[in-house]
């Protein structure tokens, strides 16, 4: 039985105060293939810190020294209710738990992630740097009548790199929220990233990423992201663990 409690409308400022950001990995078959990963038997998820969120107009994505930086465009769910032990068959409750949407780019330090996967270490560093989660403006729920039938795209310097429909998700949103909620209670304001389609790849300082959502072929203005990449000036530099 699901426990669901409602809160108010999400704002851009409230996204920074999200209790947690949960990311579904390997949710598009062609993306699994391009990274030579194993296809999961159930939704696989990990966390990104809310401090990685980069709001529109806050500045560039910062590439840490020594990092092979990759983009991954994803539909983000913004929760408006508390959800615990949700049934995967309860599609109505799952969709009602979503307060609004956003588009996001899950930036990944691919060389750090690959090392972690090879050595059986956590992925936290590869996903957790500041600016590693650019997001769009909050998208009103009514603008996306069916989150399983929208087009996600991402370009780098004007060249299309990712462009696929959410119809291709291996695990749909009710199953995603169900599996997460059986492990950890989802709270109002939590953000769930639903996975990335094929076409992920590197960006370097000087590149400009643009991403968006099309619903029925029509662009959603509030979903547009435009963000540049710059090199870090911090003292961090990647070194093998």
From TrEMBL:
Coiled coil: none annotated. It holds the Pfam family FAA_hydrolase. Keywords: Metal-binding. Residues 20-214 form the Fumarylacetoacetase-like C-terminal domain. It comes from Thermothielavioides terrestris (strain ATCC 38088 / NRRL 8126). GO terms for cellular component: mitochondrion. SUPFAM superfamilies: FAH (SSF56529). GO terms for molecular function: acetylpyruvate hydrolase activity; metal ion binding. This is Fumarylacetoacetase-like C-terminal domain-containing protein. The keyword Ribosomal protein does not apply. Belongs to the FAH family. GO terms for biological process: carboxylic acid metabolic process.
């Amino acid at each position: 039985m699901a426990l669901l409690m409602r809160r108010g409308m999400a704002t851009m400022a409230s996204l920074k105060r999200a209790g947690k950001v949960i990311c579904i990995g390997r949710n598009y078959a062609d993306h699994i293939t391009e990274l030579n990963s194993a296809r999961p038997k159930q939704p696989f998820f990990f966390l990104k810190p809310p401090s990685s969120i980069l709001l529109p107009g806050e500045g560039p994505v910062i590439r840490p020294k020594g990092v092979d930086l990759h983009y991954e465009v994803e539909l983000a769910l913004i929760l408006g209710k508390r959800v615990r032990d949700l049934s995967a068959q309860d599609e109505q409750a799952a969709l009602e738990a979503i307060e609004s949407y956003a588009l996001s780019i899950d930036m990944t330090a691919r060389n750090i992630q690959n090392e972690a996967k090879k050595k059986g270490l956590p992925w936290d560093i590869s996903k957790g740097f500041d600016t590693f989660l650019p997001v769009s403006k909050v998208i009103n729920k009514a603008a996306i009548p069916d989150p399983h039938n929208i087009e996600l795209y991402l370009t780098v310097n004007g060249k299309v790199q990712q462009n696929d429909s959410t119809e291709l998700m291996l695990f749909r949103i009710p199953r995603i929220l169900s599996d997460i909620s059986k492990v950890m209670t989802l709270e109002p304001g939590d953000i769930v990233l639903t996975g990335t389609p094929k076409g992920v790849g590197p960006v370097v300082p000087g590149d400009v990423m643009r991403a968006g959502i099309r619903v029925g072929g029509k662009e959603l203005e509030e979903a547009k992201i435009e963000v540049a990449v710059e090199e870090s000036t911090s003292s961090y530099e990647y070194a093998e663990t």
